[in-house]
Amino acid sequence: MPKKLCFSLKLDRPTEAGKTETKFTVRFRNSPKAEWKWANDQLAVSDGSVYWQPVTVPKHDIGYYLTKQDPAIEAEQMAAQTPDTLLWSLTAPVDAAQGDVSTISQYRFGLATNFTRWFATTRLMTTWFRPRHGKHKFFTDNQDAVCIAFLRNDGLSVVVLGLSGIDDTGALFTYDADGYVVLKARNDGTQAAHAKVLVSVAPTFELANAAVMYEARSLSRAAQTDVMALEQQIQGMNLKDVDAQWLEEWYDGFGFCTWNALGQNLTEQKILDTLDEFKKDKIDITTLIIDDNWQSLDNEGQDQGRKGMTRFEADATAFPSGMKGLITKIKTQHPHIKRVAVWHTMLGYWGAISPTGELAKTYKTIKALNNSGWEWTCIAPEDIDRFYNDFYKFLQSCNVDGVKTDSQNSLDDLQHAPDRRTMQKSYQDAWILAGLRYLGARQIGCGSQVPAIVFHSMINTSTPRIVVRNSDDFFPDNDGSHPWHIFANAHNALMMQHLHILPDWDMFQTDHKWAAYHAAARCVSGGPIYITDAPGKHDKDLIGQMTAQTTRGTTVILRTERLGKASQAYIAYEEPKLLKIDTYNGMARTGTGVLGVFNVSQAALSELVGLVDFPGSEEGEYVVRSHTLERTSLPMRRGEKHAFVHAELDVGGYDILTAYPLKDLSASCGKIQVANLGLVGKMSGAAAIISSSLYFEDERAKVPSELAKRARVWTSLKALGTWGVWIDRLPELSVEDDLMAMMLGKPIPLHLAKISETDERVLEIDLAKAWKDGDYESSWSNEVAVELFIR
């Protein structure tokens, strides 16, 4: 491999008044005698810019950042909950709905000033969010935006957020031919009202974004009188099932969904046969999701959108044992499956409720038109609490543990204003409460990236976090969709990270060209992992990189504590830049920053990734480890010239880089540096670390004399696997004479410890083999405490 060179230079801040940008370009040549070439001609890259930020955010009025606003819009400056941030609350009047027709008023919200790039979270139909990017002129190509961010040429970020679902109003954004942001204010209510918008200015996108989302949470809570009623109902529930054990099995379990694997022609026997194939292949899943087409439906042979749910029980032909019989078989024959969830839509099925079925005879129904002109038979708002209580009580009686509730956007597809204002909140609240009451909040919201749902249900912190799908579907047969899928999820997470939910980046298949790419993205997402493999088609090695076995024999994923998100909000999909997804695990200064890097372009890319790109690496010294190369860098700290690692990725390439904090330990024979790597060989092996302590054991410690005056690495891990410890002096040490490892207080045989074949400074200890061969006792939890003594 050719030698990589890194060049640096020092730039002085311009002294000229008002100078905020320094442009630069690059010339290069391949040898001393070769001609100089311009990089922007040879490499299809543009000139660069350095934006010089002010020391503090200038205290300008909002008109300095968004000029020429419609005079009907009123702005009030507020105190932000983030440092060095300006914040405004803006309102625009909108008349009451006229009968069945909602009122929509449009206003010129303003022209963003002195910006160089913009990023927007827009709506893909009514179902999903998707990112849009641009330069110089704001233009979202006929897609309504929920949130817009502008990067100014003074380095400041301006974020504009429209609020919906707090009352009967909504605020979205479009554009006009001159590049103005245009506010679309909607009112479904019977009284004139004001649409609400928040605007913030801060030194970084993350600060500005957090400011508007924190304020949205406060406004949502203050404005919704039904929040208190919701909390009173929650306080009266028995929530003993919502505990740490539940979180592990639901959030952290390894899941299988039937959708892509088995399709809509779903039967009881197909499910059982598929689970038998998993058992034969020795793949243990802990969560099973029974997707579309288990329900009893009308209009056989017609389009799915024309079919309505007739009763709670499963289809008698395809599921002759009934739902309870099927779940009993599953949990008896496959005891490693701890949780089974079933799919349905928010209205029942794609075509809502059958007008002639048992449900229509039991509950009050209404007719509702959607925006496509289809008439749905729906449970009336005044009966929706009883419907969901009875439905989920039935599922509970069948030993169903959770639900995946799809097509939640149908509440936003309602055409008539009276239906929208009476059904949207009542359906959301009924679903949340029934799920909490009977299923321990084991719920997955799907098709629910709807502003009226986001700012009503998802921002409410009174209930446990539910899982929410974070993007459009995984499409296995659309080759071009896979890089975009990861890009869209990473950028949607910029908003979703501030909600009280756990984003789900959707299921995927391990026997697939893009399988490892998807797996890496799920491992840095901080959310759940579900596969949808066809029977017998698995990549067991890849599954092993995503999961680990606990001391109690269950399979868990290694989920980072912080949610993964795009680290550079303003970089567009079309640009020749690596997508970076950052996340973090553990406590500040002792935890690990994780960076997923993905090539989403159509050409090979090479970049220097700085330590500055890793969250939590502001202080101290670190080593950075590559998952794909299985190699670890030399120590580095921010500000040093060599504080970079090189990432070179082909089309479809990825890597997961992890920055581990180093600890200097003084031993009797000199100083050594040590880092706890967690479980090596796992994509998110750092997430296996629950706690860690690295120190020098002196003679006064209450330890055997042969262990005194040794460096000691102690850690508690979430699961078993190969524990890795980086030791700078490892090449000088003897595994037999200078090292001793223990697990749960008992020695680990030395033959299970070895120096890594790919990294001479990494010691690998096979905890899984030690557990299998040894006489260790499992505790009530999955945690396993291990320690290493270094002479």
From TrEMBL:
GO molecular function: alpha-galactosidase activity; galactinol-sucrose galactosyltransferase activity
SUPFAM superfamilies membership: (Trans)glycosidases
Tagged with keyword Hydrolase: yes
Pfam families in the cross-refs: Raffinose_syn
Keyword line: Carbohydrate metabolism, Hydrolase
Catalytic activity: Hydrolysis of terminal, non-reducing alpha-D-galactose residues in alpha-D-galactosides, including galactose oligosaccharides, galactomannans and galactolipids; alpha-D-galactosyl-(1->3)-1D-myo-inositol + sucrose = raffinose + myo-inositol
Domain of life of the source: Eukaryota
Family: Belongs to the glycosyl hydrolases 36 family.
Record-given protein name: Glycoside hydrolase
The organism of origin for this protein: Microthyrium microscopicum
